[in-house]
Amino acid sequence: PKVEKQKEEESKIKQSYVMKRDTIQNRLKKIEEEEERMKEELKQLSEDASLIRTKKNDAKVKVDLAKGKVNSLTSPAMNTLLTFVDNPPPVFKYVMDLFCSMMNQPISYGKKLFKDENLISTISKKIDPQSMEKTTLERAYSVSSRNKYDSREANNVCPALSAFYEWSNALYYLCYVTYELNSTESLYEDKKTAFNQFFDGIEMEKN
Fold first, then answer.
1. d(Cα 111, Cα 104) in Å, to the nearest integer?
2. Is 118 helix (H, G, I), strand (E, B) or coil?
3. Helix (H/G/I), strand (E/B), else coil: 86
4. Residue 46 has what pLDDT?
5. What is the 3-state secondary structure (H, E, C) of 166-179?
6. How far is residue 125's CA from residue 110's CA, in Å, rounded to a whole number?
7. Distances from the Cα of 46 to the Cαs of 20, 39, 40, 136, 192, in angstroms?
């Protein structure tokens, strides 16, 4: 009986060891899987941010080129815009609405804006792609999404409008990719923090 009891106890000890070993191995496997998932997620976010950063740089170039055309407009050319402000053709109304939305102003502000003697500097000062709020960008998107025009149609109204049409669209796209980049970089930092906290917890668990 003593021998049988001893064997029984040894068997229980062995089973307990196997169960603990399996539990540890399963835990380690889950940790490795979670680590791999987190690393892959961070890698993907980093690659996404890199691609968006390239798009943002390209967008900046287009904005600079478009603004250069606007800055080169003569006073007589700028004055031609005034003849259409009170009763703007559809493409002109689109340009007005897009600038107003990016400035977080009501659509009705468009006529006042284009009568501003400092029109170009006013737009430049009031539209900051880096700090644009999500709600403002969403308003701008709702306007941009109904764009069915092109620079030729704007030019048919007057050449000056064509320059502003190109500038408004280039500026909106820069705002969009800037927000996209800021959001992606913020998410990356959040995931990175979570990743570090995860491993801090693992180290504490080991100790």
1. 15
2. coil
3. coil
4. 94
5. HHHHHHHHHHHHHH
6. 16
7. 39, 10, 10, 26, 11
CA 63, 116, 80, 121 dihedral sign is negative
- How is residue 65 written in tokens? 């080129």
Residue whose structure tokens are 């504490």: 204
**Rounded Cα–Cα distance for residues 103 and 18 (Å):** 67
Residue range 143-192, pLDDT digits in tens: 999 999 999 999 999 999 999 999 999 999 999 999 999 999 999 999 88
> The tokens of 205 are what?
């668990």
HSE value, Cβ hemisphere, 13 Å, CA-based, for 16: 6
Q: Which amino acid is at 147?
A: N
Nearest to 163, CA basis, from 171, 154, 174: 154
**Segment 76-135, tens digit of pLDDT:** 999 999 999 999 999 999 999 999 999 999 999 999 999 999 999 999 999 999 999 999
Torsion of CA 182, 184, 190, 195, to 10 degrees: -150
pTM score of the predicted model: 0.81
Instruction: Tell me which DSSP letter residue 131 carries.
Output: G
Alpha-carbon torsion angle 104, 108, 111, 115, nearest 10:
-50
CA dihedral angle for residue 147, residue 152, residue 157, residue 162, rounded to 10 degrees = 80
Q: Angle at Cα 65 formed by Cα 64 and Cα 68, nearest 5°? A: 85
